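Quick question, first post here. What does this chain look like in 3D?
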Amino acid sequence: MNALPIPARETEPAIDAAVLIERLARDARAAQRGLAAMPSIARQAALEQAAAALRRAAPQILEANAVDVANGAAAGLSGAMIDRLRLDPARIEAMAAGVAEVAALDDPVGRIIDETRRPNGMVLRRVRVPIGLIGIIYESRPNVTADAAALCVRSGNAVLLRGGSEAVHSNRAIHAALAEGLAAGGVPADAVQLVPTQDRAAVGAMLAASGLIDMIVPRGGKSLVARVQADARVPVLAHLDGINHTFVDRAADPAMARDIAFNAKLRRPGVCGSMETLLIDALFPDPHGLVEPLLAAGCELRGDARACAIDPRIKPADPADWDTEYLDAVLSVAVVDGLDAALAHIACHASGHTDAIVTGDADAAERFLGAVDSAIVMHNASSQFADGGEFGLGAEIGIATGRLHARGPVALEGLTTYKWLVLGSGQIRP
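> Answer (accepted):
Ran it through. Tokens below.
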């Protein structure tokens, strides 16, 4: 691909967002029929070409990303937001490897979920099929462009991508590379489209596109997700907050608990799987050893009275802290009287995303895993593993905390629905 000069800022002409989104969606729906008709092996090969195109385009993508990072810093984006936005050669390679990994996954389309034979001889099958046209509205992370495109193509869905203005140049460079590779593999060009405007009216038009867009997936901050959930006339698959807890039980191995807590908070504080509240059993033998590495690394700790007594550097928590997704090097800490108190705290304050227990007590672990009603519940593992790639699903399109259709990391299977196939031999209903 040839490098193009990339403007730092641009002024867009006025658009009729509803007309634009309708045209893009109709084109995408037509392309989706062709995509779904492609043999699975052809979609796989096209994604492999897309991964190769991303690797070839790494210099252009890095150049574009440098503009976005500079603009973001000038606009005062937080360190966590800049970390989400920034790309480097390793992250581009991980993006390309993720596309190739999705290509290698088993194709869910056409898979028979179950089959029954009725007394009259009719055979009934439920078979997985693509959902249709998926709309992705996302902020900051430019890798979502590649992840979403790969998952949708592999599952036979068309996708309409609308990234945030802070990553506009990165998203366009990534999309251009993907489009080049997918076209070489025979994927219809309109099956993967990037909305060509940053006008916010385009988001509203996507949310109102009932009958054209089959499902919306928001990826971004709380205000974006809340707006999508409030305004959409299209089914939404999302999570609003990642208020994730780690409970260190009295029977936890201190070294294991220390390592898990540190990783769960500080590996990447800005990801949705980051721990936001640490719960410490009052009978855990080494609470200071648990918080000291976090404090030494510069993490701000806000605690209840008993947590503040562990170390004078822990600041008193406000009531709002227990319901806050920081996405930064800030952590709430509470000392609780055992498993029951931990479960009560989680039931009151968790967002249903990811919650974990660290313990060597198998009975306590089993009770925690059964009682916590979150999309992901862990035992002796960092909540930073709340990721589709770590679950062996390839790239994820998002985390869902609802109870319908899909839950937890949503990947290929979560982008399918099913239809009934009825095979008869002349039966008529009496």
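Confidence is low (pLDDT under 50) at residues 1-9.
Residues 17-239+404-422 form a domain with the Aldehyde Dehydrogenase; Chain A, domain 1 fold (CATH 3.40.605.10).
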